[in-house]
């Protein structure tokens, strides 16, 4: 029987309430360490204090280099990725992955590479697809994969993406989550299923090492991917398509990383911002045309009044078109 003692959990919108139920049902003598990433950005977090209050296990933000201790809940601190290696926890301010820092993918990846079959990976409720590539790496290294049932989630995108990328040994409701994690820790068998088409374990390990470096050379990225015609929505640098298509993912040489849904969301926001900037520019042209028209009215220049009126009408027509484009862009995101 393969006992497991490293539990890594990732979640976003809707996961807060799930964690409250989970920690209340884990035993005080849990024979595993629990490491949690919740998308909180740089906002101050009291999550460890709350988790300690809600359940029997002590919870805290770790310090860099702190030993991994069983029966303890470690929560990634605001604005820093949490990674595991050689019996200790690391913290870094590397580039955001899937627009998040902390992000689930770096935690899952590092756990899989360093602890292999000892890992239980858990993806909870959340938007977009952070955790999908990380859970696929857990799968590739023989870890146990648990996904919250999408129909049981406030936000189903993260679990659905994880299942598509890695499959699941257990699909669970909130009520059964603690029981399924305990079963995995105690050696529950991996579910027999068609393995997702994915990169070799060797390539995934190389990707994990490069991700921890942060800034890398184009030649290093060439070893794990193919340069695409796309650019990074965070920094504008070239993107490499990494590995295979399960999940489809991209990296830039400054360390930003995206799974497919996160990249699509980034481009959607970028195009919306571009359209709104165009609306602003055209609106300012209309405002200026009105000022010139008023000046022409004061001097009695009828010809100039007509010219400025034509400019105003053309500008207002363009603004209506651009606003319709924003509405269409937003409707595609729903």
UniProtKB/TrEMBL annotation:
The gene is cheB. GO terms for biological process: chemotaxis. InterPro entries: CheB_C, Chemotax_prot-Glu_Me-esterase, Sig_transdc_resp-reg_Me-estase. It comes from the Bacteria. It catalyses: [protein]-L-glutamate 5-O-methyl ester + H2O = L-glutamyl-[protein] + methanol + H(+). The active site is at residues 12, 39, 130. GO terms for cellular component: cytoplasm. Residues 1-188 form the CheB-type methylesterase domain. Pfam families: CheB_methylest. PROSITE patterns: CHEB. Its EC number is 3.1.1.61. CDD domains: CheB (cd16433). This is protein-glutamate methylesterase. GO terms for molecular function: phosphorelay response regulator activity; protein-glutamate methylesterase activity. Keywords: Chemotaxis, Hydrolase. SUPFAM superfamilies: Methylesterase CheB, C-terminal domain.
